[in-house]
Amino acid sequence: MHRLIDEQQSFWVELCECDYDFAIEIRQAYSTNAKKQLADLKSLEENIASDKLYEAQADSLHKLAGSIKLMGFVTAGQHLGAIESELKLLRLPLTPHSVSLVESQLSIVQGLIDSAICARESK
User: Fold this and answer.
1) CATH code assigned at 73
2) Half-sphere exposure of 3 (CA within 13 A, CB side)
3) What is the pLDDT of residues 82-97, one digit of tens each?
4) Contact status, residue 39 vs residue 76, Cβ threshold 8 Å
5) Section 19-28 average pLDDT
6) pLDDT, tens digit (0-9, with 9 covering 90-100), for 31-78
7) Beta-carbon contacts of residue 89 (< 8 Å; ≥ 6 apart)
8) For the whole prediction, is pTM greater than 0.90?
9) Residues 53, 87: contact at Cβ < 8 Å?
10) How many domains does the chain have?
11) Are 19 and 120 in contact, with CB atoms under 8 Å apart?
12) What does the angle CA 93 – CA 110 – CA 83 come to, to the nearest 5 degrees?
């Protein structure tokens, strides 16, 4: 697991070396997008009928997982995909624990990006 995370982070380290400004732009876009998608995910409970809530949350998680995978963080995307699959299988909405797991994955990705950028800045 740690090797996979190291490989995923090394992509970001290389990106920072090749095009630092682009890496900074992507970090900002990720941060903004992740916060918006998480807020949207949390607000679904208020705006969707309870019998359709799990479907809307699963769709939201699917989009979030896909965007994270595209950024090179396959493991975090797979974790979100597993939560999505669980929602569909159980036909139940997210629990507070599940929301916490989603927040944790987003935070891990942000931390990996930030540490790659900090490594570049410290050179």
Assistant:
1) 1.20.120
2) 0
3) 999 999 999 888 888 9
4) no
5) 87
6) 898 889 989 988 888 887 788 888 999 999 999 998 888 887 888 889
7) none
8) no
9) no
10) 1
11) no
12) 20
Q: Which two tokens stand for residue 10?
A: 């090394």
Rounded to an integer, what distance in angstroms lies between the CA atom of residue 77 and that of residue 96?
Answer: 19
pLDDT for residue 121? 79
Dihedrals phi, psi of 94, to nearest 5 degrees: -60, 140
Contact in structure between 93 and 57 (CB atoms under 8 Å): yes
Other beta carbons within 10 angstroms of residue 34's beta carbon come to 20
Q: Write down the residue that tokens 């490989």 correspond to.
A: 7
Give Cβ neighbours of residue 67 (< 8 Å, ≥ 6 apart).
33, 37
Query: In this structure, is the dihedral angle defined by the CA atoms of residues 23, 112, 107 and 92, taken in order, positive or negative?
Result: positive
| Domain with 9 in it | 2-121
Residue with tokens 């090797």: 3
| Dihedral sign for Cα atoms in the order 109, 115, 118, 123 | negative
Q: Indicate the residue type of 49.
A: A
Of the candidates 81, 90, 88, 101, the one whose C-alpha atom is nearest the C-alpha of residue 38 is: 101
60 in Cβ contact with 37 (< 8 Å): yes
